[in-house]
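Reagents: none. Just compute today. Fibronectin type-III domain-containing protein.
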Amino acid sequence: MTIAADLWWGTNATEYVLYQDGVEVDRRSLVAATPGPQHAVTVVGALPPGTYEFTAVLSNAAGSTPARPVTVTVRAR
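Predicted 3D structure written out:
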């Protein structure tokens, strides 16, 4: 499974953090190139059946902004 975050407008971020159910699962630096868009991707891998909430947080020197959480339901095959 892949989770992506996009920033289409505004001041670019210098850091991206992804949380799965409130637990940090990825953190990486981003190259700020305002006013261009930014794209960050995390490969979460296979998850067992269940419901998961993912939240990306983008940060720069001015502060941090969380994205709206995304709920993903994984069903058994």
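The chain is about 0% helix and 60% strand.
Action item: order primers for follow-up constructs.
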